Amino acid sequence: MTDLGKNLSSGGATIGALLAQNASRYGKDIALREKERGIWKETTWAEYAQEVLACAAGLERIGVKPGKAVLILGDNRARLYAGMLAVSLLGAYAMPAYPGATLDELRHFLGEVEIVGAIAEDQEQVDKILELKAAGAKGIDHIIYDEERGLGFYEVEGLMSWVHLIEVGQHELNETPGLRENLLARAKPEDPAIFLHSSGTTGAPKGIVLSQKNVLAAARNGHAAGAFDENEEILAYLPMAWVGDFAITVAAALLYRFTVNVPERQETVGRDMREIAPTFYLAAPRSWDQMLTTIQVGIENSTRFKKRLYHFFMDRAIAAETRKLNGKSGGALEPLGRLLGEAIVFGPIKDQFGMSRLKNAFTGGEAIGEDTFVFYRALGIKLRQLYGQTENSAINAIQAPGEVRLHTVGKPAPGVEVTIAEDGEILVRSDSVFEGYFNKPEATAEALEGGWLHTGDAGYLEEDGHLVVLGRVSEVMHTAGGERYVPNYIENRLKFSPYIKDAAVVGAGLDELTAMVCVDFEAVGHWAEVNGVPYVSYADLSQREEVATLLREAFRRVNKAVTEPLRLQRFVSLPKEFDPDDGEITRTRKLRRKVVQERYSDVIAALYDGSKEVHVSAQVTYETGEVGRVERSLPIREV
Asked: At a CB cut-off of 8 Å and minimum separation 6, what does 208 contact?
């Protein structure tokens, strides 16, 4: 096993070699904690490696081998992570899917590659696979489940518990001399680490296989850029099918020996985060916004004295951080105010939300609102932005601690080359870049033309090397007057408002820009309760004139930041949220623009034909899977 640990700092490292090294050198250190029934259960690196090896031996016994795939289905669980590593040891494809994936989405995966088995979290996910097979889907002959509740009476061929799989694998390890060492050394750097999918904003998701060389190169690049240190404490709560989770929770955790803490369930993430107090935390802008809303709600519901105390320190800290970001210095008494504020206000808030030990805090996926960004930095959390794609193993550019700017995503990480094409597209070259889309040679040739990854994003490099991302190149549009704009850029700035969850900007080939928005039910609902605005449903709340006033403020703020030809003129508040189950957004909440424009074509027409209102019959998919409709007359409102 010691030979496997050689040259791990070079491109020759593999998941097996790292697992072996961690087990032999750091075997007693904690690799994982998982909360079960209110108790945190710890697993050392030695124990973790043993379970992964037993799982790999068991999976090989039931037919998992190179060229085959294993579906990973469910929320974050320690055994599902171990299963992904085990599949990679075998040189096969570990294919995580979002827990809410529909049967059609899973059927698409089955059409890409032979899926011989699945590792499912619980009964709900097992039932989904069985329903898929009952509908005639071929493959998935073996289903391994983690949580046994509700599955004891199932009599299905190929269905087994995780415990039984490990028993099978342990028997193989005991009976086959050299198998343990062989499994650890079998996979090469070019072999698969993970089989992910593109977001599918313009069509069916494309398969993206990242090699072990890719993901470990990305982890090294991130570490060199100061994104994380060795021995970080992290919370594994991001979707397992998202590249950001694999890059941090698996690749970086292996390479830099993180302790990965798996929450009991998604509903307990906030409470579990308070107990763990991670040192590294990555979240999408929407998550940071939601936490900010919770903080603000708590302050508004507190005593008058506490509110005055909060605003006294917080307003000054925000002003100080704004000056700092604009390159200005503060007064002589500013450090003293910071010290007092930390003791009285900032420290208790961070402690309440599990952020007291955060050293490295990041946001990524889309632009974050200036107010949200400045708030957390004023609170003492040195929030930074990062930029990447699935095709590049999640890490392209990162803001350095001392070079944070509101409009950039930082400089390219060490090991990543960035250039800008003539049409403004961001091009990337690195060992972390994938080899191409799975079984799609034409798409691969287009994406990797000239040896550079064509990211599909428009942007530019500033003189000092900072990268500015504007939006998707494919979404660069022009008004009838020839004015160039990127709708996603404007939509993100509308979503800086805590009251707007989603937005779709319209105006290509037309005289002016308009928008459809979906309100944030939690934030607007709380505002309505505090201000005595009655409502009975989302559809009702979204059409209230008092809510329209909140939305107008957001539109006016955006209009101040764009040139006059690109100012939004009218808007409609939709009676339902954009929903991935309805096909309007992806699982990562990216807008499927063509679907939205087709589905709301009557609304778009009304925004331009002088109508005062428009009748909408919108599709809604309920949690049961049944499809219904929301009928509503929507006012066309002027900004």
From this structure: 195, 196, 197, 198, 390, 391, 434, 437, 438
Domain identity same for 83 and 231: yes
Residue type for position 267: E
Triad 541, 546, 551: Cα angle to 5°: 85
Find the helix or strand (DSSP H, E) in which 18 lies. Answer: helix 15-25
Q: Is it the case that residue 5 has pLDDT exceeding 60?
A: no
Q: Which two tokens stand for residue 124?
A: 């709900």
Q: Examine the domain organization and report whether 525 and 387 are in the same domain.
A: no
Q: Is residue 270 part of a domain?
A: no
Greatest mean pLDDT range, 43-57, 189-203, 553-567: 43-57
What CATH number does the domain containing 542 carry? 3.30.300.30
449 and 484 in a single domain? The answer is: no
- 3-state SS, one letter per residue, for 46-114: HHHHHHHHHHHHHHHHCCCCCCCEEEEECCCCHHHHHHHHHHHHCCCEEEEECCCCCHHHHHHHHCCCC
**Residue 500 resides in a domain:** yes
Q: Helix (H, G, I), strand (E, B), or coil: what is residue 159?
A: strand
pLDDT tens digits for range 572-622: 999 999 998 888 998 878 899 999 999 999 999 999 999 999 999 988 887
For the chain, give the mean pLDDT: 92
Tokens of 406: 């509101």
376 forms beta bridges with none
> Are residues 71 and 162 both part of a single domain?
yes
Residue 477's SS3 state is strand
Q: Between the CA of residue 229 and those of 31, 221, 225, 259, 351, what are the distances in Å?
A: 15, 12, 10, 12, 22
Contact present, 72 and 106 (Cβ < 8 Å): no
DSSP 3-state of 575: coil
Q: Which pTM does this prediction carry?
A: 0.85
3-state secondary structure of 536: coil
* 154 alpha-carbon distance from chain centroid: 34
Give Cα 73 distance to the centre of its chain. Answer: 16
Give pLDDT, residue 9.
46
**Amino acid at the residue 479:** T
Kindly report the length of the chain.
639
Provide the pLDDT confidence category of residue 470 given band limits of 50, 70 and 90: confident
Q: Find the domain containing 48 and state its range.
A: 3-265
Contact between 128 and 151 under an 8 Å Cβ cutoff? The reply is no
Residues 469 and 492 in one domain: no
256/233 Cα distance (integer angstroms): 11
Instruction: Report the pLDDT averaged over residues 10-31.
Output: 91
Q: Each residue of 43-84: pLDDT tens digit?
A: 999 999 999 999 999 999 999 999 999 999 999 999 999 999
| CA–CA gap between residue 622 and residue 631 (Å, rounded) | 15
How far apart are alpha carbons 535 and 541 in whole angstroms? 5
Per-residue pLDDT, 10: 46
Q: Which amino acid is at 313?
A: F
- The fraction of the chain above a pLDDT of 70, given in percent, is 97
Q: Which of 14, 34, 31, 13 is nearest to 23 (CA)?
A: 31
Residues 431 and 315 in one domain: yes
